[in-house]
Design brief:
This protein is an alpha+beta fold and about 260 residues long. It contains seven helices and twelve strands. About 35% of the residues lie in helices and about 30% in strands.
Length: about 260
Amino acid sequence: MDHDEVLALFDRQMRRDAGPDASGTRVERVDGVVRQTGAGDGWSAVVWSDLDETSADAAIAAQVRHFTELGREFEWKVYGHDLPYDLPRRLTTAGFVAEPVETLLVAEVAELPTDVPPPDGIRLLPVTDASGFDLLAEVHDKAFGRSLGLTRHQLLAQLAADGDAVPAVLAMAGDVPVSAARMELHPGTDFASLWGGGTVAEWRGRGIYRSLVAFRTRIAAERGYRYLQVDASRMSRPILERLGFAALSTTTPYVHAGRAAQG
């Protein structure tokens, strides 16, 4: 895999030419950025920018003004190769708060295993309805120590609109969910993305995560996607790299409070 070539493809398909990720979402190209304004309480963000030292501050101010007038929290998703190089400092000065850095990992679907059996005592269960997403949210709460919250509502809305749009899977120990993960498909691109892989503490280190990756890789292959992409945490990055994923950049969410900023 040519890392520079794939990174350029990712930037073009998944960021610069990004389409709405849900019904009612608006994507606009203005002031040198691509921004998404989510429907209702949906995710709002700047997903791409083409800025330099002379245009960055005005573009940042314009996006803060846009989302603050809507009373919306939003995220500026900064990648390690984005310009200008001091974009993080400029965002912080404008009132954004950085969240933990993650690593942009990409692998060719054809190079990944698609059949990794789970450990003894575990069965994999596809999520096909609202009750399955309730179990996925339960695992998320236990694995990460925080509620799935808004994401659960978004997933249920996507499930209602297209049951095949967000493949998800549970790892069950008997009737108890102990791990869960999902995948988002991006029609018209070469990429599917992996999200939310989490295992409760007492079941970690037994190979469940690898099985969940293989389960979703098989779906991506069946749907004709060429690449899998992950925004990987420090915990998942080593596992994914051993499976064949390569680090192409970093990604850091910079969050602006929006509504709170008005007070």
